[in-house]
Amino acid sequence: MPRRSVLSATALAAVLLTAGCGGGEGPNGAEEPVPTAEESANVSGPDTSSPSPEVGDRPVGVPQDASRKSGEGRWTGASAAPALKDVRVSGHDAYDRVSFEFADGVPGYFAEYVDTLRHGGLGEEVRVTGEHRLKIVFVGVTPRSTFEDREGTSVVREIRDLGVFEGEMGVGIGVDPEGDGRVGFRVKVEENRIVVDIAHGRADPQD
I need a surface site. Which of 12, 50, 88, 181 has the fewest CB within 10 A? Predict the structure, then answer.
């Protein structure tokens, strides 16, 4: 092979090798550097983290509705009507719970905020600690349904027995929420228990 042909083949191979090892050209013709392994590892994809389980200012599951609520009762025993056995108060992260346990089923109920609490039989005003007053009436209970007044939590301040009159038992709950306004509550009925969950604060104070 002539000497010139050998030199041309060698030069061509060098050019091809350089092109194969380089980073390629950028949009302006300049050679682009090949990213290192560390630089490649720092490139992040789209954010796939779960959204925060918040609605307004409170977690999902916290009662928000402060309107009147009611429900029907059901009898499971041989007695004429359910009888209240116990009242319990428990605190949770964003709401407090008042549980009413009955024997022989559960009575009907209605629950609402009122301006004044009154004793069912005497009609006298009953005062409770707390800015707001939530009244619960159990419809269809035995006359022996009663409990001792008790203190609760920093939000559910006090629970008072308003007496039984003509088969209806009244319960007054003093509520002192975090912030202004009446907070939401919900009522859940189980086999022998009625549970009232009361939120610590409102989802949106401007509502």
Answer: 50
